[in-house]
């Protein structure tokens, strides 16, 4: 049975399977439907703290699933403005709703030029199997 992965046209993506939604200089970050499907049942997330500075392409937390633990890679540089505290008690929200309730954290971008390194939905579609 083929599983249809949702890829939203209004988001940016990374080759490490994070998605990014922009609202001015605030970027909301999560993992793609493909990533949550590959990981399987997510049981724990470690998110960056509010106020923490994160750097593009650098680990800033982790996602633990039954099958594996993966680094959470920040797609952009900036300061963490908010993290999804609902995931502390309910990490499975990432599996159920990766683009809505399962968002991970929000940053205020410090280097908007980094957006040029992100993938469009069409480009992301080409890199997933």
UniProtKB/TrEMBL annotation:
Keyword Iron-sulfur attached: no
Cofactor remark: Binds 1 lipoyl cofactor covalently.
GO CC field: cytosol; glycine cleavage complex
Record Gene3D superfamilies: 2.40.50.100
N6-lipoyllysine found at: 67
InterPro entries: 2-oxoA_DH_lipoyl-BS, Biotin_lipoyl, GCV_H, GCV_H/Fam206, GCV_H_sub, Single_hybrid_motif
CDD domains in the record: GCS_H (cd06848)
Keyword Transmembrane helix among UniProt keywords: no
Ranges for domain Lipoyl-binding: 26-108
Biological processes per GO annotation: glycine decarboxylation via glycine cleavage system; protein lipoylation
Short name of any one Pfam family annotated for the protein: GCV_H
Record keywords: Lipoyl
Top-level taxon: Bacteria
Cofactor(s) listed in the protein's UniProt record: (R)-lipoate
Family named by the database record: Belongs to the GcvH family.
NCBIfam families cross-referenced by the UniProt entry: gcvH, PRK01202.1
PANTHER family xref list: GLYCINE CLEAVAGE SYSTEM H PROTEIN (PTHR11715), GLYCINE CLEAVAGE SYSTEM H PROTEIN-RELATED (PTHR11715:SF3)
The protein's role, per its UniProt record: The glycine cleavage system catalyzes the degradation of glycine. The H protein shuttles the methylamine group of glycine from the P protein to the T protein.
Assembly with partners or alone: The glycine cleavage system is composed of four proteins: P, T, L and H.
Record protein name field: Glycine cleavage system H protein
